[in-house]
Recover the amino acids of this structure.
């Protein structure tokens, strides 16, 4: 399971609130064709892992990406302006 810091959840929740997205749009952590992770606007899907803040869904992760992210941490990158999120993968063998 992906670990998401409280700070990262606040950043994503604020961005979603400010964006006035259509109701069917969600923020998804997805894998592209090159195997890189990124945040995209998408629709919710059956089997998504949903990470919430204050009982409100904030981040959706499909089951395939979720397995690849076991033990990874999504947090706010230190010293970045504007604020950016950083995904830290677990050390191999741990």
């Amino acid at each position: 399971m992906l670990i998401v810091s409280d700070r990262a959840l606040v950043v994503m929740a604020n961005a979603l609130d400010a964006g006035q997205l259509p109701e069917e749009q969600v923020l998804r952590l997805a894998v592209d064709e090159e195997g890189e992770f990124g945040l995209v606007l998408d629709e919710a899907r059956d089997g998504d892992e949903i990470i919430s803040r204050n009982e409100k869904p904030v981040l959706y992760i499909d089951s395939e990406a979720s397995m690849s992210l076991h033990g990874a941490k999504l947090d706010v990158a230190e010293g970045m302006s504007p604020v950016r999120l950083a995904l830290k993968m677990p050390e191999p063998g741990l």
Summary: The chain has a mean pLDDT of 88. The first strand starts at residue 3 and ends at 4.
